[in-house]
Here is the input.
Amino acid sequence: MTNKRKIINDPVYGFISIPGDLIYDLVSHSWFQRLRNIRQLGLTSYVYPGAVHSRFQHSLGAMYLTGQAIHTLRSKGIEISDAEEEAVLAAILLHDIGHGPFSHALELSLIEEMPHEMMSLLIMEELNRRSGGRLTDAIAIFRGEYPRRFFHDLVSGQMDMDRMDYLRRDSFFTGVIEGSVGSDRIIRMLNISDDRLVVDEKGIYSVEKFLIARRMMYWQVYNHRTVVSAEKLLTSVLVRAREVTAAGMTLFATPALDYFLQARHSAGNASEIADLVRNFTALDESDILSAIKVWVNCDDRVLADLCRRLSDRDLLGIELQRSPFDKKKITELEGKAEQLLQLTSDEVKFYVNTGDVYNQTYAPGTPEVRILLKNGTTKDITAVSDLFDREALSEKITKYYLCYPKEIFSN
Here is the structure.
């Protein structure tokens, strides 16, 4: 007999147990092991050198917290079967399996109109087919179709175990202490009301700190100006590589990367889905990094320069402001970049570009944070908090960025 009850030493929580055969088999699968080579925070290590932790670590951490939440709910009289526990643990474990290289940095660039959640679902469905239906309930929980709705809240909600782990883990590895959240206390305060996940009234201050931490981490880490510049440059590398490939140039690439350098891919019929999943699960950051290392010396001058800048951390300059940039200023920068770097009008887009990033404490489309009062009723956090109202929580703060070559102003 094979012992599949393993213990993993995690730097954030200590010892994490692999609770059963199904979870062990999922963790051991090559598609999940691939997450070791997918950085949780993309190119954030260009700013915070410690931020090199992986989606593999995060997924295990989210599974651990979900297990703690199940323990808390059972202690409060909520009946949860062993099969349901296994299903929700599998769902949270696989929730990020659809992330591509550098996580969100290349999302929607590798495959148009397919966020990582959709790819995660495609991969889970293929794993379910191969396992004879062992993930059927996990998929139902992931999709929000399982009859007991609070299981989906644990996987995807305003205070799900995904957010609970990534805030604490990202804070730990970046050293940004403002993002540290008291996950232990929040989890002990979890409860169920009307089949939805709620927080006991005495946990309200921990919830407020959680929401503040999430807001602060977005501006200090996830949308840090230098991170935005680095990840925009990485996206430009992929776009340019696709352009020169379409023009007939043969670039060095692994088979998996070459597949995604070709024309855009879709997930239409079963054959296309299988082909897409097979190539996607063979792709990780080593494919991208090895290609960039070679492309530094490729025949396309623009692609070679973009790769050099990324490799040497010679990033584009970036400005952030609350309103869109003046078109006249953008045009002037384009003209200076064209002249200085000898670019064509089609090439300058890789060096001068604008867009936006945003921060929203209350994520749209997910259940609100409900507080279970001592009288047995529930209210939205905004109705009982001294710090927040719904308008403040739901407000979408947008900042606009403008990238350009720094040498424009040094010559």
User: Anything to note?
Assistant: The two ends are 70 Å apart (CA to CA). The beta strands are 7-10, 14-17, 190-193, 196-200, 317-321, 353-359, 370-372, 378-380, 397-404.
